[in-house]
Amino acid sequence: MKIVRMMLFPFALFYGLAVKARNWLYNKNIIKSSRFNFPLIAVGNLSVGGTGKSPMVEYLIRLLLPEYNIATLSRGYKRKTRGYVLADERTTAIDIGDEPMQFHNKFPGVMVAVCEERAFAVPQILYDKPGTDVIILDDAFQHRQVDAGLNILLTDYNNPFYKDFFLPTGNLRDAKSSYKRADIIVVTKCPQDISSEEKDIVADKIKALPEQHLFFTGIKYGAPYHLVTKEGVVLNEQTDVLLVCGIANPKPLKAFIKERVNELSVLHYRDHYIFTIDDLRHIKKQFDAIASSQKIIIVTEKDAVRLIKFQAELKDMPVYVLPIEPYFLFNGSGEFNYLVKKFIKDFKVKS
User: Fold this and answer.
1) In this predicted model, what pLDDT tens digit does every residue of 148-161 receive, in sequence order?
2) At what angle do helices 53-64 and 333-350 cross, to 10 degrees?
């Protein structure tokens, strides 16, 4: 794979030139970003997948929901619909995509919308839900169609943007210099035992501007619960696990499970993979091949919303969902929470 990526280096150069030209057009205001007199928070990255955008959006929802009426706006990647769609009680992942469906399931009090054209969708959300106080733009940092008031940029500790290169040789879909547009930079998926010296090395390489705020987060996994019945289970050293996941970067998840169980087998699908009945048969076959009598299947929350359509087939199988959320290292949560809430409060005062 690495050899193929290096062979594609000339294409990466052309892609990088196109990205830089596009950014120059935006910076010179030749291509204009839409601006709204309304608090918009953009969460995104400079690379393709795997930096923890969905857990960060959920963190923001949990932070703000007690005080504000929140809406989330995503593109709705891999959905089978087009245009603006507002989630309701009949909505499925096919209608809005897996991550927005995850938000919709976990936070019933939050308005969840998807649309390819964010500049169109923002006023539509405010028309449909006039009491909305803030909109969180999911995966919107590098999509400059809308100029958000607060930009949160995520970068993976294990593959930071400053070490990366443009697609298809690397994973960058935006220029490294675009980090300067962020108000907040969050280094995600850090090891739990990261030292202050290691933190300082990363901070020195990022070179945050004086007005930017830099934070470090790790991953916290919750208690697994059954996909259909919601009944909990405890992982232990006698358990054999079949991990079924369609996410961009499963390494931290695999490491977490492997430390806590007897044996780990993995069926890894591509990111945002839409499971079919044939996939379900294959999963069952792989699971049945595990000799242990104490065995379970684990899926991510994102995969769960794509598998729930098979709940009739899965309700009697030990399929458990492993929830995930970020936590701030070096006592950073207080400052981060303050900055986000201050942005909304100050915006309302200015309005």
Assistant:
1) 999 999 999 999 99
2) 60
**Average pLDDT of the residues in 177-194:** 96
Q: What's the whole-number mean pLDDT along residues 24-49?
A: 94
Q: What is the pLDDT of residue 70?
A: 97
| Exposure b/e, 191-202, CB count within 10 A at least 16 = b | eeebeeeebeeb
Distance (Å, whole) CA 260 – CA 241: 10
Residues 6+ apart with CB under 8 A from 80: 94, 95
Model pLDDT, residue 215: 98
Shared-domain flag, residues 232 and 310: yes
Buried residues in 140-172 as b, exposed as e (16+ CB within 10 A): bbbbbbbbbbbbbbbbbbbebbeebbbbebbbb
Give the separation between CA 58 and CA 44, rounded to whole angstroms: 13
Tell me, yes or no, whether 63 lies in a domain. yes
Residue 255 is assigned to a structural domain of this protein: yes
Alpha-carbon gap, residue 199 to 218, rounded angstroms: 12
Q: Is 199 helix (H, G, I), strand (E, B) or coil?
A: helix
Residues 6+ away with beta carbon under 8 Å from 207: none
User: Structural domain of residue 336, as residue ranges?
Assistant: 2-68+133-220+327-350
Parallel, antiparallel, or unpaired: how do β-strands 184-188 and 263-268 relate?
Answer: unpaired
pLDDT digits (tens, 9 = 90+) for 64-86: 999 999 999 999 988 999 999 99
> Contact at 8 Å (CB) between 123 and 40?
no
Helices (H) and strands (E) in the chain, counts: 12, 14
Query: Domains in the chain: how many in total?
Result: 2
Percent of the chain with pLDDT over 90: 91
Site of tokens 């006023």: 123
- In a domain, residue 74? The reply is no
Q: Which residues on adjacent β-strands are paired with residue 324?
A: 221
Q: pLDDT band at 272, cuts 50/70/90?
A: confident
Predicted model pTM: 0.94
